[in-house]
Amino acid sequence: MMTKVGSWALARRVTRPGAGRRMGRALRLAVKKEAHALRAVIVVGMRKQAPGGAAFKPLSALTLAARRLAGFRGRKALIRGGDLRNSITVVAKGDVAFVGVPRSAGKERIKIAHVHEYGTDPIIIPITPRMRRFLAMLFRKASRKRKRSSRRGNGSGVVVVQIPARPFLRPAFEAWKRGVDLRIANSIRAQMGWK
After folding, report:
1. What is the mean pLDDT of the segment spanning 103-113?
2. Which residues fall within 8 angstroms of residue 22, CB to CB, at 6 or more apart?
3. Which residue of 4, 22, 97, 114 pairs with 35 in a disulfide if CB–CB is 3.0 to 4.6 A?
4. Taking residues 69-80, what's their average pLDDT?
5. What percent of the chain has pLDDT over 90?
């Protein structure tokens, strides 16, 4: 005597003619849907200043003072003009998707994204007399006392700047990837009618 075990009705639906094409289309749609969900996690994280729950390091008083001098009152990191946020794109091809700043955004935008994701090494900038006047005004606006140098001169000296890492892609990806396999499987089941 022979006994059938398992869901034979489901097996028949999976193996019937045309099921492979439908399965491929369902997989592509599920991947694209998840890619757009990841982009939303990144964008919302930037807006809330904590992608994936990892809070950004706040902007320095000097950065905020420079923004005020330029006529911008915002206090959020990475969102001054929205260019970086708006350049985060989904590129889906087949069952693979890219979410991030694509090459088509331009070298400068990619460089800016890299700087904010990973931070920079110290950058040494020689001070000109004009820059010295600007920095003095900036320190006054920031209500900070600047360090007096024992060295006096006509523009001699340097400023050392280091941009801290404010990762906006990696923490969002780590938060999004929890449960992604189950979400994709459920999406495929729903599209194939296997609920």
Report:
1. 92
2. 191, 192
3. 97
4. 86
5. 46
Type of residue numbered 99: V
- Give residue-wise pLDDT tens across range 139-170: 888 876 555 555 555 545 888 889 999 999 99
For the chain, the straight-line distance linking the first and the last C-alpha, in angstroms and rounded, comes to 31
Give DSSP secondary structure letters for 71-123: T-----TT-SSSHHHHT-EEEEETTEEEEE--GGG-HHHHHHHHHHHH----E
Q: For residue 109, give the nearest of 85, 90, 127, 131 by alpha carbon.
A: 85
> Residues with Cβ < 8 Å from 76, sequence gap 6 or more?
47, 49, 59
What residue segments make up the domains of the chain, in order of their start?
Answer: 17-119+164-192, 121-145+155-162
DSSP E strands in the chain: the ranges are 89-93, 96-100, 123-126, 158-161
Token match 């807006």: residue?
A: 47
Token output for 15: 């193996």
Number of residues written out for the chain? 195
pLDDT of residue 155: 47
Cα dihedral angle (81, 85, 86, 87), rounded to 10 degrees?
A: 110
3-state secondary structure of 193: coil
